[in-house]
């Protein structure tokens, strides 16, 4: 298996990455939104937000 960031062989200690650095780069991409899937229709987001504002929160 190769590291998805730099393509070097994966290290079992950091699998599927080769190092802590590559694992941190991947985490930064997740946190920065690089892996986000864009919505097809922004209007859907507005409708969902309106519906959530009309619906009272459910107790836990």
UniProtKB/TrEMBL annotation:
The record's annotation in InterPro entries points to: DNA_gyrase_inhibitor_YacG, Znf_NHR/GATA
Q: Which GO terms describe its molecular function?
A: DNA topoisomerase type II (double strand cut, ATP-hydrolyzing) inhibitor activity; zinc ion binding
Q: Does the keyword Zinc apply?
A: yes
Cofactor(s) essential for the protein = Zn(2+)
> What does the entry comment about cofactor binding?
Binds 1 zinc ion.
Compositional bias, Acidic residues, is annotated for 41-50
Query: What is the stated purpose of this protein?
Result: Inhibits all the catalytic activities of DNA gyrase by preventing its interaction with DNA. Acts by binding directly to the C-terminal domain of GyrB, which probably disrupts DNA binding by the gyrase.
Indicate what this protein is called per its UniProt record. DNA gyrase inhibitor YacG
Record the organism: Rhodovulum marinum
Upper classification of the source organism reads:
Bacteria, Pseudomonadati, Pseudomonadota, Alphaproteobacteria, Rhodobacterales
Q: Which gene encodes it?
A: yacG
């Amino acid at each position: 298996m190769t590291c998805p960031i730099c393509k070097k062989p994966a290290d079992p200690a950091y699998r599927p990455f080769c190092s802590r650095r590559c694992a941190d780069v991947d985490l930064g991409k997740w946190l920065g939104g690089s892996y986000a899937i864009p919505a097809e229709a922004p209007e859907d987001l507005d409708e969902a937000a309106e519906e959530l504002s009309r619906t009272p929160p459910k107790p836990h």
